[in-house]
Amino acid sequence: MSYDKPLPDVDDPLTRPFWQGLRERRLTIQRCGRCGALRWPAAPICPECLAPGAEWTDVAADGELWSYVVYRRALSPAFADEIPYAVGVVALDAGPHLLSRISGPVDTLKVGARMTARYEDVSPTVTLLRWVTESPGPENGGGSSGDHND
Amino acid sequence: MAVRGQAAIVAVGSTKQGELPGRSADEVAVEAISLALDEAGLTKADVDGLITCRAGMGRGGVDTGVGSLLGINPRYSATLDYGTCNFSLHLGTMAIMAGLADVIVLAYGATQRSQRVNFGVPMGVDLAAASGYVHIAGPAGLALQRHKALYGTTDEQFGQIAVSQREWARMNPLAIFTKPLTIEDYLAKPYLVEPLRRDDVTMISDGGAALVLTSAERARDFPKAPVYVLGIAETTALRGDRDPENLMRPWLANVARDVYASAGLRPEDIDALYIQDPTAVWVLQMLEYYGFCGLGEGGPFLAEGHTRPGGDLPVNTNGGQLSESYMWGWLHLCEAVRQLRGECGPRQVPNADVAMYCSTMTFTKGAASIISTHR
Ligand SMILES: [Zn+2]
User: Fold this and answer.
1) Which residue numbers delimit the Thiolase C-terminal domain (chain B) (predicted)?
2) Domain A60-135, CATH among 2.60.40, 2.40.50, 2.40.10, 1.20.120
3) HSE on the CB side for A81, CA within 13 Å?
């Protein structure tokens, strides 16, 4: 069955490099050619120094879960079949906060958890970014050095 | 020139709330204006200023439309694109102080319930919209989840907002939701957008509200006691989500600082508090930023019952948007005026002398006003 939910215009000149990046499994966002500020969401000029245009740069698609919500009721009919689903804001290690769908179980999410991106091709032209909880490394038994068992 | 005591609200009007099928937003706004003019003992010919507010989702509320229906050519008129009445009160106060008008009507009408306006439809499709991030409950829920994680706020504490406002609404004949709601009832209900339940989110309703504002000199000539504007303040956060912590709205602290300075008052001076509440999260945030408790201490503060009937800080004594009606904050100011005049019957706050009304335009603007029957 084809994907029938709201889709972005991936040919919008302002955001095309971002969507193209997701297609290629990269997270790419704007960076000001003059002052170097990372820019999210995309804009035609730099809101920091007002320089026109932008360069695009790949950033690590990892960060910390700043907050999340779980849609338990369909407030938009388009997403009714996915209830319950979670949406979260991830504070990228590079700085900007990026909101997107969280894939996987919704009942074990925690603010502050390490998150990483997965890429999902939802149509022949559109790829969406989904956050997933970073799986703990097998060599250290599942956590950072700050972990304890009590 | 200082704002304090320069302008006064001399009349308010509010229509039936709920469903008003077959009527336009402008028509309802004019009905509210008529009610306010009646209370003021004025006719429309006395009005020389009109400040309207665009109805939700852009259906009506423009001054040229409302003024045409009202059949007046005032000296001054303007439309604000955003609601809550606070911004309208401030613009009206400025217009009076500048001599642009002497008798200004502030008005709002909405028929979004009857028109079945769908607040779940995104404006354009970006990554958020493609992720199913819809409705005000989304960002409000994110802010609450963050608050819970940072400060340990519990559902039981947070639920006191909806419960307290329902207790107030049960004493307000204008309120739409008056069924009893205990904290146990609240906690037993399912999440809508976790961590928010249905009772934490405003309904959609039809209705109208209007206020008459005039100069302090003229204010003494009206049938009802004038309610003076003692202080006003605003700020913006137009950078929006470019500021990573914007959902927590830290800039509200600036409005608080400025409104207290404008009136020369402190939080302890406020007898009745009004907080515009599209969701209960706004109440939690503003109790903290306006200095009624410390940052992060809103949960325990609510659990202590300060905001409930009989508490020492009555909040949203009309029931707010959670229980009374969704009038984009306009009824909060009408209620504050009625409380200060002592007209509120069983829900009257004893010796209410000073009221404050705090509101926001989503995540981009904040405003507050302090008003009193004393200059
Ligand atoms: Zn720049």
Assistant:
1) 252-369
2) 2.40.50
3) 4
What token pair was written down for A12? Answer: 């919008």
Domain B7-117+204-219 belongs in CATH node 3.40.47.10: yes
The domains of chain A are located at: 10-59, 60-135
Considering only CB atoms, A89 lies closest to which of B142, B191, B194, namely: B142
Q: Give the C-alpha separation, B341 to B112, whole Å.
A: 31
Is A91–B241 a contact, with Cβ atoms under 8 angstroms apart? no
Per-residue pLDDT of chain B in tens (375 residues, 90 and over written 9): 799 999 999 999 999 888 888 888 899 999 999 999 999 999 999 999 999 999 866 578 899 999 999 999 999 999 998 888 999 999 999 999 999 999 999 999 988 887 777 666 556 789 999 999 999 999 999 999 999 999 999 999 999 999 999 999 999 999 999 999 999 999 999 999 999 999 999 988 888 999 999 999 999 999 999 999 999 999 999 999 999 999 999 999 999 999 999 999 999 999 999 999 999 999 999 999 999 999 999 999 999 999 999 999 999 999 999 998 888 899 999 999 999 999 999 999 999 999 999 999 989 999 999 999 998
Do β-strands A97-102 and A85-92 pair in parallel, antiparallel, or remain unpaired? Answer: antiparallel
Strands B354-361 and B365-372: antiparallel
Write down the pTM of the prediction. 0.93
Find chain B residues with C-beta within 8 A of A95's C-beta.
244
Q: How far is the CA of A34 from the centre of ligand 1 (A)?
A: 5
| Contact residues on chain A for B132, CB-CB shorter than 8 A | 5, 71, 76, 78-79, 82, 85, 87, 101
Which of B194, B239, B363 to probe the A interface (max A CBs under 10 A)? B194
